[in-house]
Amino acid sequence: MYVEELSQHVGQEVLIQGWLFNKRSSGKVRFVIVRDGTGWVQGVVTPAADEETFELAERLPQESSLRLWGVVRADARAPGGFELDVRRIQPIHIPKEPFPIGLKEHGVGFLMDHRHLWIRMGKQVPLLRIRDAVLWAIRDFFKRRGFVATETPILVGTSVEGTTTLFPLDYFGRQAFLSQSGQLYLEATCLALGKVYWIGPVFRAEKSKTRRHLTEFWMAEAEVAFLEHEGNLTLQEELVRHIVEAVVAERARELAQLKRDPEVLLAQVREPFARVTYAEAVEIVNAHGVEMSYGDDFGAPAEDALSAHFGRPVFVERFPAKIKPFYMKRAPDDPQVALCADLIAPEGYGEIIGGSQRVDTEEELLAQLEEYGLPREPYEWYIDLRRWGSVPHSGFGLGVERTVAWIAGTRHIRETIPFPRLLDRLYP
Length: 428
Ligand code: 4AD
Ligand code: MG
Description:
Elements: E1 13-26, E2 29-35, E3 40-45, H1 51-59, E4 65-74, E5 82-93, H2 108-113, H3 115-118, H4 124-144, E6 148-149, E7 155-156, E8 168-171, E9 174-178, H5 183-193, E10 195-203, E11 216-225, H6 229-250, H7 252-257, H8 262-270, E12 274-277, H9 278-287, H10 300-310, E13 314-317, E14 330-331, E15 334-338, E16 340-344, E17 351-357, H11 362-371, H12 380-384, E18 393-399, H13 400-408
Parallel strand pairs: 3-5, 6-10, 12-13
Antiparallel strand pairs: 1-2, 1-4, 2-3, 4-5, 7-9, 8-9, 10-11, 11-18, 13-16, 14-15, 16-17, 17-18
């Protein structure tokens, strides 16, 4: 039996297998709080239990693993609404030393050094359960729409998102990189399968130490043949709305544990998302007292100003092409801007999606590779896609961790992935 199933077993004796999270005593009664991955439950141990069990409830240290038999009782005051009247405790493993992470406050550095243990504690469990629900919601969305799940390589010979954030590695004497995005390969696959997506790890040698940047993160990317810019935005909007609705429906308990109000989230995605051009966005940002000029990238303060201004997700379209990657199609009415959009999450969670329509003629692609100073040879296969059966096509990449951070309401994305990789962190 798992803690999340207790509501269906009121009055019955159940067996829970888990770990001792906390304990306390009050007169002749001892309380043990046990976690099992699906939740926490309080067990009440009285002298009516056998002598050994009563003694164990006093003696077992935090993070002892155990089996616990007890009768389920509904109790409105108990966290989760149920308690166990404990009949018997059987220890599995009793730690010899105190658990390094006590229930008091610890510094972030200490917690990050003990990430392998920290993930058992408090907020971390609901956060990782919300991450699971976000990933399933993405798969469910694409599956229902007839997208084909596919894969893209991690070991690659080319850059996608600029050459400054590449992780180089030696590939049998040749230069290779860890993939920054599966996009270029998805463009090839969508010309074979029509509508494709993948969810996988990508790598950026980000020298920035912000709460929004990891060096290894997960991206959900989609690519669709015959889809143009407008349809691309509609698809993204429907995906994001679906993720929020699915997580709210499936993970109400976890959102409550994180004190995240589901109504706030639902209200943010109910209306059509806001849309502005890059040029309009710069004015809004300036009007909010954050200085930036046309042609600058959005920093975190600029994104936060936009998100405060709209209070719901906002697409920023038509960036100056020169601050975006080489593969974006230029707007037919203004070749200085790209047919692209970034989706900025509400409440200062930053950019959660980057996407665009792609260059679809050989001439434009060759010109843009040259403009960006990229060598032609490693991109020959990518150029081929414009030589045989090229079609208008578009796609996007959604940052999984930033999306989880927004939905869960947690400020730093390092807590939204089990083992975050950051500029200064490769351990554990
Ligand atoms: O905007 P980006 O760089 O877009 C691409 O890589 C495109 N090739 C995707 C595509 O069109 N198929 O990255 C997409 C998203 C961002 O919006 C952001 O949410 C997330 O990935 N992201 C990061 N998340 C965590 N840490 C980082 N260092 C990130 N860089 C981007
Ligand atoms: Mg981007």
